[in-house]
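As described in the Methods, two query proteins were run sequentially through the folding procedure within a single session, without resetting any intermediate state between them. The first query and its resulting C-alpha cells are shown here.
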Amino acid sequence: MERILNVKDLKKYYGKNTNLTKALDGVSFEVEKGEFLGIMGSSGSGKTTLLNCLATIIKPTEGVIEIKNKDLTKLKSSELSEYRGKEIGYLFQNFELLDNLTAEENILLPISLHKKSDLDAKRRLKLLASYLDISEILNKFPSQMSGGQRQRIAAARALILDPEIVFADEPTGALDSKNADMLIRKLAQINEEENATILMVTHDPIAASFCKRILFIKDGKISHEIKRNNSSETQEDFYQRILNMMPKLTGGNKNDF
C-alpha cells in the first residue's frame, strides 16, 4: 500500500513552565492511500488540535508531518498555501459556504483559485454531484438548502481538486440523524469507489463505525487503536467495539465525548 501521511512525534504545547499545556504530546501514526481513518477522543483530548496541525492551520511545537514524503513543517508560507489548495481538502462542521454564490460556484471556487482546467472541473463536478446526490440543487444558494444539502455541497468542494487526503472536522456534528447518516454513507461510498483518503475527527460512534480504523486520543497521546476486519466483522460489531472503548477514555462517562 502507498503511504500518504506520516506523522512522527508530533507535539503542540501552549504556555510555559507551570502553565504549560501539552495539547499534543508525541503523536505518531501513518495513513495509507484509500484509508478512511477516524480520530476519536473526549473533549480537550487533542483531536481537533491534531487535525488543525495536519491541515497547517496551526504550527506544531515539534515533530514531522509528511504528505507523500514532503515535510510540511519545513515548507515556506507560499509553499504551504499551495499545499493547502492542491494537496488537501477540508470539510468543516459548519459548512463554511459563501452565501452569495450558488452551490456550483461554491464547489468550483478552489478551481478558480488554483487555475485548474474548466473542462476537467466540469467532469469532476458531474461525478461528485452524482455521488453526493446534489445534481438538482447546483443552481441554488445556501439559504435555499437544508443543512444536509449544504454539508454535501461542502463535501463536493473539499473533493473537487481530487486531493491526496481529505480532513473532516466533525462533519456530521451540525446535522440531524437522517442527514448525518446520509452524509457519512456518501463519504464511505466515495472512499470505496474513488479510493479517496479521508481522515475524520468525530465524537459520533455511528459515524466512526463507517471508518476502517480508529485512533483514540487521550491527554494528547494516542492511547488505543482498533481496526475493522472487513472480512469477518459487521459494521454493527465494529460500532459495538467503539462503544466499548469510549468509557475507557472518559472514566466511564460517555457524555464527555
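Immediately afterward, the second query was submitted; its sequence and C-alpha cells are:
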Amino acid sequence: MSQQVAPVSLRDIQRPVAEELERVVAELRRIIAADFPIIAEVNEHLLRMKGKLFRPTLLLLSHQAAGGSEPRAVTLAAVVELIHLATLVHDDSVDHSALRRGMPTINALFSHQVAVIMGDYLYSRAIIELVGLGDLEPLRVFARVTNEMTIGEMRQLEAHDTLSYTEAAYDQLIRAKTASLLSGACEVGALRAPAAYREALARFGMRLGMAFQITDDLLDYTEPEAVTGKPSRLDLKEHKATLPLIAALATLPPREQRLVVRLMATPDPGEDLVAEVIRLVDAAGGLDYARRRALDLAQQAEAELDILPASLARDALRDSIAYAVERRS
C-alpha cells in the first residue's frame, strides 16, 4: 500500500454484501426484542445508534472471500454488532459520555444503572444466539474476544502515569480494546474455510483494527465534533495517552514536557491549554508518527489478503484498509 491512500466510501466496501447487511439489521431487531417496556424503549434507541455496521461488513466479506455461502453468517454478523454495541454502552457509562455518533448515550438519556444493565442484556442475548447455533467454534472465538476487550478496558483504567506510558503498552491496549473484535469478526467469517484462510483473516483483522484505532486517536486530535459525531480533543481532556502524545513525548524538551504534566494534573483542562499541547505534539512529529504507524499496519493487513483467491469480497476487504486509515469520522 502506498503512503498516500485514496479515500474510499464504506458504501462501496459494503456493496458485495449489501443484501446480507439488510438482513443483519432485521436479525438485530429479532435478537434483542423484549416484552419489558424499558428494555424495548432502550432497544429502539440502540437500533438508531447502531452506526455503520463496519464489523458485520468485515465478517460477511471475510465469509465470502474465504468461499463461504452459509445463511448463518448473517446471524453471526448480527452477533458481532451486538457485542460491539454492548461495549459502547458500557464504555459510555464508564466514561460518563453524553454523546455517541451525535446522539444522546443510554446513560445520558436514561441512567448509568440502565446503561450497565443494557450492556449486560446485549451480551447475554449475543451468547444465547451463539448457543442456539449449536456450534462451539464461533462461541469460543467471541468469548475469547469479549474477555480480551474487558482486559483492554481495565488496562486503560490503570494507565495513570501518562509520561511513562510506552508505545508497547499502547499497542497492548489497542490490540485488546479494539483490534481483537475486528480480528474475531474476520476469523468467525472464515471458520469453515481452510485453516490458512482463517488464520490469515484473523491476522488481517488484527492489523486492520490497530490501524483503525490509531486513526481514531488521530481524529481526536485533528477533527472537530461536527465531523466525528463525538466531542473532540476528549483524550487529552480525560488525560489519556494515545500514540500521537506518546511519540511526541520522546522528543519534547523538559520545558514543553512540563506543559503536558500541567495538562494531565488539571482536572478539567481548558481549550487553550489543550490546543497548546496539540500544537506541541504536532510540532514534535507525534501526529506524523501515528499516521506512519497506521499506514505500516495497513500494509501488513493488505499482505495477509494475498493468500485468498481473487474475488469482489477480497477487493472490498482491501478497500476497507483504505477506509480505516483515511476516514474522517
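Confidence is low (pLDDT under 50) at residues 1-5. We note this only descriptively and draw no conclusion about the first query from it.
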